[in-house]
Amino acid sequence: MFVVVGGGVTGLFSALYLRAEGADVLVFDPAPGAWSRAAAGVLEPTKFEINRINVRGYPIRYLKMWLKGKARVTRLDWRWILAYLKVYGRDYSPEVWSYVKELAFFSLSTYRRMAEAKNDFEYREEPLYEIVEDVEEEAKALKADPLSPRFEIGEVGGKAAIVYLDAAVISTDLAAERLYREAEEAGVKFIKRRVVSVSENGVLAEGGHTVKADGVIVAGGWWARELGVPIAPMKGYGFRVKTAARLGRTIADFVSGVFLVPYRDWVKITGRFDFDPTDDYTPSSAVLDAARAWIRDFSVVDMAVGYRPCSPDGLPVIEKRGYVVIATGGCRLGWTLGPGIAKAAVDLALGRTPSTPLTTMRFKE
Q1: Is the pLDDT of residue 202 over 90?
Q2: CATH code at position 348
Q3: What is the pTM of this model?
Q4: Is 154 helix (H, G, I), strand (E, B) or coil?
Q5: How would you list the strands of the sheet with 168-169, edge to edge?
Q6: How high is the pLDDT of residue 201?
Q7: How many domains would you assign to the chain?
Q8: b or e along 153-187 (b: 16 or more beta carbons within 10 Å of the residue's beta carbon)?
């Protein structure tokens, strides 16, 4: 029996990969797929710049966002801050970036195969138009991106934009529903409770429910902090809205702080990057306000909230500790890297690989 803690994108893929190996799988999550629905669904396999929160100057950028009301800080974890100071300004070896690229391309090939079988989650490959404060500075940063993204400078809505050429999009709402359905059909069992602890005695969930396991994959995002992993919950909001407007492009407006992705029956509007683990969702209104610069009239279908699990350097943590594998930290590339992180976690859990280049040792050096 293998237990997966967390039923988001990484947890659901982990469960499916384990079942494909013939393992019995039990997933603990109070609402499987729900937290991953908040994401816009933009896949960026050759771009890491959006996740490079430890580059020099980023704290000033975030402070400016906070001063303008585009970001929020309600609680900071001292372990995360100490780890951030250790990796601030640090770059990594070509081996690390090659590994990250492998995760991204494995993930992209996974979505392509899923779409070839049945494209019920609106997968498509198309450019992403990014509105930024300084196009030339952004182009300079992209040229230094270790994943070597292809891009050009273009225009959208009368504004100069970075056109990222290697992007794809998926409906995270539909993809999460499909993964959950396929997992159930494959025989994965779900217990809709939160996990309290993971130890040598097994997994303890709310209500005193204990399960002994041959292996555990902790894919519960921010919950990994319970195991001493420095992970911050970067809250974001996702809205599905109905509108008569024809957007025509996938747009990331970093000036206003909003993503807009058109799908067949709705437009997905997402935004915010808040250090905020609370249940106060009042900043969500700012996301809708920012979207009105692009689509004036719309009605909200629903809202999803997500807590992006961000490590201090934006890179995932994929590590084995005894019979427990930790798989978290995708930050703003959770769907982009999710299948790849899950595959790496399963390989560790089954003893196929001894380690990865993305362990927590980098926060201790």
Answers
A1: no
A2: 3.50.50.60
A3: 0.97
A4: strand
A5: 42-43, 168-169, 124-125
A6: 78
A7: 1
A8: eeebeeeebbbbebbbbbbbbbbbbbbbeebeeee
